[in-house]
Design brief:
Radius of gyration of chain B: 20 Å
Strand content of chain B: 25-35%
Largest sheet of chain A: 7 strands, mixed, barrel
Oligomer: heterodimer
CATH superfamily of the largest domain in chain A: Cyclophilin-like
Low-confidence stretches of chain B: none
Number of helices of chain A: 5
Number of strands of chain B: 22
Shape of chain B: globular
Number of domains of chain B: 2
Structural class of chain A: alpha+beta
Low-confidence stretches of chain A: none
Mean pLDDT of chain A: 94
Number of domains of chain A: 2
CATH class of the largest domain in chain A: Mainly Beta
Helix content of chain B: 10-25%
């Protein structure tokens, strides 16, 4: 059981803070606590938003008040069995790493004094955890990127990052589910649909899942529906 | 299928209902009306279920032709409303016959008007709501803003219109969108990471609405605020949250806000004041004042009482 605090976020929202760190242990606690809260407070909840190390709990303020919600959260989490949460699934995401699909690949290699092949290898090596989903529909924040690849966001974000762009910022990595502005460093393209509102589930990954990136060549990328 | 044909969509017109809740885990924002007060009345004046799908019209300029009998009510920004060229009052229900032409001119006060229709527009829900989010391409007819030539299908069949009731809200209850505005803030989130001096500056100086504001957030211009904390993990953002990016200019995050963000926040503005804020244009000067969470809860209950009190004084047409 981790220590956590509950703070006011707004007129109808509280936010829970376990220790503020990017770690599988804290994030696993977040997931388990979310489940407990959703079950125990279903009658008054509007939304529950998990992230790396926080849970935003929004409730209907005409039905209840912050004292009662806080007390009910404390009560629900006191009964938490701890490691009850089952492990997330393993999802493999194919990536076409290249200079034509990853415009920052060369710059990153130079910056970190690595070869392009080493950058690609280092990015593929870890099993990443999905820590949070947000910013845009289907945008999954994953970590942690190898220290040797950690790269800050661009000074001025690109107006257009293509759909499927595989990117890193500091020690996080993600795939842009749709074309959007963005300031992360682009290494390649993933041909899979990361968010499809017409499908159930609409996303191949969820918070708590494990993701492995695997390199594919251009022919395979195009065969899987990728667009350059 | 028949309904309303869009002749001219104006600057920005979208379909909105009460909003999309419980989907933040997919990164989907809540959306819903920018001004929940005017939206609620537009539906109430037709006896609709609260939250029925209606049009949100930014600044006016909308022209519709009715292909079916129904009823409408327009509430919110002062847009000149006419039916077949005859001026009609806002904040009241009007009968519409097939062939009628509905026109909304440009707003003279306020920013957003709501046009509700008997029993709401009949639009397929996505993730439990028809609310449109342009950035996400979700909701409405096709995830985008409404276009000339599109048809807005109606829920209530023409044959059921005989029993339709219409109401008018007495003028003394109409909101004033030009009055001075103080945004009441419930302190929270990283508030303690702003020094006492910084917070004093925030409450003592006026802020101006920037032209870069939209349904996602209202950007403000004024004395820059400095936060002692430089690094934090992205976390959930609630309605009305006041975020302070590195340039120190606060942003009040509204209906289409991003679900997660990593900038420090001072707390959140009372929803009732966010709705008023959504009716003010660029250049408007406003102030902030702190209230406690208990005061916020009381104010919400009082507003609910006031709504039903005014509802009991509606004129039946």
């Amino acid at each position: 059981m981790l220590d956590y605090s509950i703070q006011i976020a707004g007129e109808s929202s509280l936010i829970l803070y376990p220790p503020q760190q990017m770690s599988a242990e804290v994030n696993q606690w977040v997931l388990a606590a979310c489940q407990q809260i959703e079950q125990a407070l279903a009658d008054v909840l509007l939304d529950v938003t998990p992230s790396y190390a926080s849970i935003l709990v929004s409730y209907n303020p005409l039905q209840t008040d912050h004292f009662l919600v806080k007390a009910r959260i404390r009560h629900a989490l006191a009964a938490q069995s701890g490691e009850s949460q089952q492990a997330g699934k393993l999802v493999e995401l194919p990536v076409y790493y290249s200079e034509e699909s990853g415009p920052d690949l060369t710059r990153l290699a130079k910056l970190h004094q690595l070869s392009i092949e080493q950058v690609i290898e280092l990015h593929q090596a870890p099993l990443y955890r999905v820590y949070a989903i947000g910013f845009a529909p289907g945008f999954a924040y994953m970590g942690e990127v190898d220290e040797r690849l950690a790269t800050p966001r661009l000074d001025s974000p690109r107006a257009k990052v293509p759909k499927g762009a595989v990117a890193i910022a500091d020690r996080q990595t993600a795939v842009y589910p749709a074309e959007s502005p963005g300031g992360w460093n682009l290494l390649g393209l993933c041909p899979l649909q990361l968010f499809d509102p017409s499908k159930t589930p609409s996303m191949p990954v969820a918070v708590g899942d494990q993701v492995r990136f695997t390199a594919i060549d251009k022919a395979e990328f195009l065969r899987l529906g990728g667009v350059l | 299928m028949s309904g309303f044909r869009i002749e001219q969509p104006g600057l920005l017109c979208t379909l909105q209902d009460q909003g999309r809740f419980g989907q933040s885990r997919l990164g989907l924002t809540t959306a819903g009306p920018a001004d929940g007060h005017a939206f609620r009345w537009a539906n109430a004046l037709l006896g609709n279920t609260p939250g029925s799908c209606a049009l949100e019209i930014t600044l006016g300029g909308l022209q519709l032709s009715a292909e079916q009998d129904t009823a409408i009510a327009v509430c919110g920004a002062a847009v000149p409303l006419s039916i077949n060229g005859k001026p009609k009052a806002l904040w009241q229900g009007h009968t519409i016959k097939a062939g009628d032409r509905i026109e909304l001119g440009m707003a003279t006060a306020g920013v957003r008007a709501y046009l509700a229709v008997a029993d709401g527009f009949r639009v397929a829900e996505q993730f439990g709501s028809c609310a449109t989010v342009l950035r996400e391409g979700i909701g409405g007819l096709d995830g985008g803003k409404l276009q000339a030539g599109q048809l807005l299908p109606l829920t209530k069949p023409a044959a059921a219109m005989a029993s339709q009731q219409l109401f008018a809200l007495p003028e003394r209850f109409w909101p004033d969108y030009q009055s001075p505005l103080t945004l009441r803030l419930i302190e929270g989130y990283q508030c303690e990471d702003f020094s006492v001096a910084e917070r004093q500056r925030f409450y003592q100086h006026p802020y101006q609405i920037s032209p870069k504001s939209d349904r996602m957030g209202c950007r403000l211009q004024g004395p820059p605020l400095h936060c002692q904390r430089s690094k934090m993990l992205s976390e959930g953002i609630c309605y009305g949250a006041v975020q302070v990016p590195p340039d120190g200019q606060p942003i009040v995050l509204l209906s289409d806000r991003q679900t997660l963000g990593g900038y420090p926040k001072l707390g959140s503005v009372l929803s009732l004041d966010c709705w008023q804020l959504a009716q003010r244009s660029a250049g408007f000067e406003l102030q902030f004042a702190a209230i406690s969470i208990e005061q916020a809860h009381n104010l919400l209950h009082l507003q609910e009482q006031r709504f039903w009190q005014q509802h009991s004084q509606l004129e039946v047409l």
